[in-house]
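Notes on consecutive records. When two proteins share a document, each keeps its own sequence and its own token line. Never mix them. Below: protein one.
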Amino acid sequence: MNHVEIWIWAISVAVVIGFFFFDFYSHVRHAHVPTMKEAGLWSLFYIGMAFVFMFLVAWQWDWNHAGDFIAGYATEKALSVDNLFVFLLLMTSFKVPKIAQQKALLIGIAMALVMRTAFILAGAWVLEQLSWVFYIFGAWLLFMAVRQFIESFDDSDPEMPGWVMQLKKLIPASENYDDDKWTIVENGKKMVTPLVLVVVALGFTDLLFALDSIPAIFGITQEPYLVFMANALALLGLRQLYFLIDGLLEKLRFLDLGLAFILGFIGVKLVFHALHVNELPFINGGQPVEWVPDIPTWFSLVFIFGTLIIATVTSFIYASKEEKAEASTEAE
């Protein structure tokens, strides 16, 4: 697959699967609510893994590909944090007890990674065969950037997707969780608990989010191996991150706005790349457009990390001012 041999793919996939099993047997199998310290340490561990992998890519490949990976990872991680708002909404809607949330998140995320991998491989094949698809990816990201920009000014609470409500009707389930069990016996009849619905909802919700994130990372690198690893490493630590920033999500007020600029930037980058490899006869006579600027990796890194830092810092400054204003109002 492009420049990566199949044995490297096999080892990488095995390591990712191994970490999911490790996560399940060491943390999720015995239901508990993770402490802030536990969630924080494991979040740092998985973020550290991404940087270790970046250095491995630089060592075995080059710093250009390493930069592509870490830029893609940062974008996927930021989009994942934004998606946690919806995860929190799902947990609240289904009234998932804290003790069962770890299992629901881990299995839902594992499902999403399997489906995303299929998307990545299919996307890589399509882009290799049909270079004009870059135009579609670029236009889609520009559309999503505009929609994200508009929605970032909407202060109303997000609504539950309609298909989730339909899911409740399609899969009859008990109202009781029985801690984090999958099934329960009620009135002599064996039924699934709502945890089954939650896992399915989380998995498919994350798959819908992939409609943004997969084209976005293909705008940074067209190497399917790096796309897969960026997704896998971003998703691996998502469960811990959910518990770590549960109380901070509402303070990240400008994250949506920052992501809108990042998606727009990557959309433009994809269109530029499409023009560089142009084969459409009605554009420049079917020849590549040479005058279009080539956006280097270092600029992508500066733009993505710079935007995320500005969005995060301004969010916390704004939240701090709001808290002070509320405190002074209450004092009066």
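Protein two starts on the next line and is unrelated to protein one.
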Amino acid sequence: MVIGLLHRADVRSTHLYLASLGTIGLCLGLWIRAKTVDQTQRGNAERRALFVGLWPPTMWLIGDSLREHE
């Protein structure tokens, strides 16, 4: 159902693969930034980086499903 909607919206597997790689860069950037904030805010910044770190495998798997649909 979701894969069909994405396909009809002209989202291709390549788009999701590139987004997956982009979120890896975003996660690394957030993790590096977390090391520069003061100690009281560091925990929240690290949790944010870890949360974003969960996105790449999800986007990659959705991209795989779209490739099978294409």
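For the record: Helices lie at 2-8, 13-34, 39-52, 55-69.
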